[in-house]
Amino acid sequence: AQASLPRIQAMAPDHVAVVESATPTLHWWLSSTSDVPVEVTLVARESGDTLVEQRLAPPVRRGLHTLALSTENVHLPQSAIVEWYVALVVDEERREFDAVANAALRFVPPPSPFEAEAGQEAHLRASSGYWVDAFALLTRWIEAEPGAEALRAHRAALADQAGLEAP
User: Which of 62-82 are b and which e, b meaning 16 or more Cβ less than 10 Å from the residue's Cβ?
Assistant: First the structure.
């Protein structure tokens, strides 16, 4: 059954990613529409507390999806590692069959605010290690200007840098 599932990925690097805000915007991607439920969960690594548990009923459309922690009224504890999971739930009774993508986050405010020329903000964040924030910023710009191919190319290059498939 897993062979027929879409590919799923958390849009984050393969190491603990730092984020500049306690309420970051996270993204995940599906290669095709999912006919099984999708569950998004955030868990504090040290305590095991579940911070977010969101379930989407099928069909879940292909493409890029957003989880804004500000709308979930969730604030990441500073410096604590939070595990983030996106699962395709194949069998409710046998969760070991889930297809799962995961990432880890840590809220670490930057030493000083990011100040850059217009258009360079995402690059500055990414080069400072705030990859998730750079991806979110580029995604917001693309949503505001859907036809901006240069922005899509920058976001695709950022995804490639982290070894991810571009959305």
Answer: eebbebebeeeebebeeeeeb
Confidence label for 23 from pLDDT (cuts 50, 70 and 90): very high
pLDDT score for 28: 98
Structure tokens at 24: 């970051």
Task: Give dist(CA 131, CA 28) in Å, integer.
Answer: 14
Q: Are strands 17-19 and 99-107 parallel, antiparallel or unpaired?
A: parallel
pLDDT tens profile 147-165: 999 999 999 999 999 999 9
Instruction: Give this prediction's pTM.
Output: 0.93
Question: Omega before 111 cis (within 30°)?
Answer: no
Helix/strand/coil percent split, the chain, to 5: 25, 30, 45
Tokens representing residue 100 in the block: 């799962």
